[in-house]
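Replying to the earlier thread about multi-chain prediction with a worked example.

Input:
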Amino acid sequence: MLTYTLEGLPGEKLYSKLYGFLKNDIQSGALAAGTRLPSKRQFAENLGVSVITVENAYAQLISEGYIYALPKRGYFVSHGQQNGRPAACARQLPQPAPAREPAGAPLFDLAGSRTDPENFPFSTWAKLMRAVLSEQRADLMRNAPAGGVEALRLALADHLLAFRGMRVDPENIVVGAGTEFLYGLLVQLFGNKTVWAVEDPGYRKLSRIYESHGASCRFLPVDGEGLSVEALAESGADVVHISPAHHFPTGVTMSSARRLALLRWAEDAPERFIIEDDYDSEFRLSGRPAPPLTALDGAGRVIYMNTFTKSLASTVRISYMALPEALMRRFIERLGFYACTVPNLEQYTLARFIDEGFFEKHLNRMRIRYRKKRDALLEALLANDELGLKVENIHSGLHFLLRVPRVEETRLAACAAARGVRIVPLGAYYRTPPAATGPDAVFPVSYAGLRDEDAGEAARRLREAVREARGE
Amino acid sequence: MLTYTLEGLPGEKLYSKLYGFLKNDIQSGALAAGTRLPSKRQFAENLGVSVITVENAYAQLISEGYIYALPKRGYFVSHGQQNGRPAACARQLPQPAPAREPAGAPLFDLAGSRTDPENFPFSTWAKLMRAVLSEQRADLMRNAPAGGVEALRLALADHLLAFRGMRVDPENIVVGAGTEFLYGLLVQLFGNKTVWAVEDPGYRKLSRIYESHGASCRFLPVDGEGLSVEALAESGADVVHISPAHHFPTGVTMSSARRLALLRWAEDAPERFIIEDDYDSEFRLSGRPAPPLTALDGAGRVIYMNTFTKSLASTVRISYMALPEALMRRFIERLGFYACTVPNLEQYTLARFIDEGFFEKHLNRMRIRYRKKRDALLEALLANDELGLKVENIHSGLHFLLRVPRVEETRLAACAAARGVRIVPLGAYYRTPPAATGPDAVFPVSYAGLRDEDAGEAARRLREAVREARGE
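Result:
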């Protein structure tokens, strides 16, 4: 078998060395065209390196045209590479195949949108998938309607009634591969002349997606009661996208008065709609539930939207929306030609997961876990009050607001980063930063992705960072 | 348990009868609010009807607010339904839950885009899925990059090299939940001020999707060599969407001269691109392969696109595109924030399916099967030549053109429909029907969805329809 000595200069990557050796031998003709290269596993064993090293070297050689792969057969030296000229379309890659984990990822990410993958009820999910695969073969091969398979829409309607007190006709539900995709469908439904209003501060992806579809956005202020309906009325927007149950990043729950004012705004003119993004309402950890706007909507102006990327796992790409009757008719007329983007297997599996009570159990378990995680983090953060830290809006969802007096927020973020803790100041979520941000530094703290055992250490480092940032 | 006698008037559906009984009893108070209804299975057994009958009745009662379902608990009578008024948001459904198969579906659909679900290698696919579920748990829980998981992109690059002679950098591949979704991504990539050109006649969904995203389309004529590049140059379009290997519906393969002219058109100005939609190139049944346009593209102006909805199954929603280097950079910059729309499970399963040689085997098997199906249909159609039928463009893809002299095409389609055979005249695929359609009626005949044993019968009925349409 091919053997190279890969002891490189310090700092030189192994795969890069291996790649260089192989390229030279191919160019010189030492490795003739058509030669079969060793399998990745055997080569790695022989050279005493990891399989990933060989994989990266091979990937780079493939992308530059020096070698090619044949399924089930292996890797072979390409023809016509012997004069040092790779084929026309080959090129020098700045980077080899992407590494498995981004380098320099923070140890403790308190500003991510990920949930802890350990929480996913993997075995139950896999068991249901196996059951669907063996019992529902015919269902799996039947094209789903644009809105999704019937079984899932029925399960979702039941779930919404039981958990949110909403009566939704299953036929008005549209299932899609993530909320990002559904936002795009809504732009198509309303047309890109429609003006969208989003919250400022807010979840920045929203406006990126709307603007990416050619729609224009207005950025409206949020106060302690939620989105300003006055600003909305003045903005000229037709559709407003909000998360009344739990605003990101401030954590505000919209007041009843504001909800009613918002519904009145929508009813005041035709073609005004509200998108109620209920992205983490499953995680009300304490306090009383607020009914969804959709339940108060007598005029058919509220589009309800939710996702399983937070409540189950970010790699389960299933979201859904419930449209008012008239909009559903419009959807079928204009967009009913689309195929549903979620595979039938995932749809039927989720339907069983809900119908057989696993989702309810999972949510109960998660609420307990997240409450524990939150409490551990709060306790460690607020231990002794000599730093004067304060927290707000802790009752719902998977983040709260941390208020740190007497510190500059970007400096604190930098000091935390140096300790492996990622926090992003509230100011970064503003499109138009407010004139005065107040005397305190404020950070939304997302704890869903934090491992249970890390809460104490993350808090300790963050407190250290506060001291350093203050020059103590 | 509740018992009703469901012997209805002739023509009255059982579920409708059951629905009526339950509604009456709820309105009259015979079934009190909160009463638990029998489980679907037990009720069905008791009444001697199918579970679907009970399901449909319950679904309609749910959608009208008379009853509600709780996961794992069952169906219950709603509150406040006793005076005959369903709740505010309930409504009379014109139809109950949709039937399993659309009524009046043709027996032999020769104009569908479906493939025969029987062909899907279900057991192999399910076996691989089970393996991925048990062996790649960590991979399944890791967020994929916007373009898709690395394993699948590597497998696709290998496949493209082996089957289409294309060298594609795996990092320039973008995986998405169906080509429909990818078209939408391209509109976002180029912006909706971009003018699109599509083929006329053509696959009508294309322009619907582009226009649905706010882009404008030009419809360009196709002759025996493919799309008219002259018309393209005059149209002012920036991006042209074609299927050079096998045009739908005419079946034309684009000539070499036309391919080169097309590439020159793209190179003549910045920001001109060609989308090469290779949707059924796997099914070249005879004749020599034409290289993909992408392989001739020295200037980075061709976007290659393909799908597994035809080559595997319409319910496997996985498609992909390979972008030229510069466009991939733009994709990452502008659209890299999107989550990949295909679940990791399906991505890893497909990667194994390709890597372990199953896809190649499957395609070989399919080509043999489709060739047999095509030949059986051709033989039965052309048996005795007294009808003067002619076929064209039979070598590639999953449809051919049928030319029927001395008959009016819409009349023939109607006569065929009366015999349970669905054919759609070529004229129906035109945006701008040509001034003179020629003396013959022409139909693209899609045979992929036809069951093997049905070819003879479908042909016999179609020939009968020709005789009737001619008044013979």
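The two ends of chain B are 62 Å apart (CA to CA).

Feel free to reuse this layout for your own posts.
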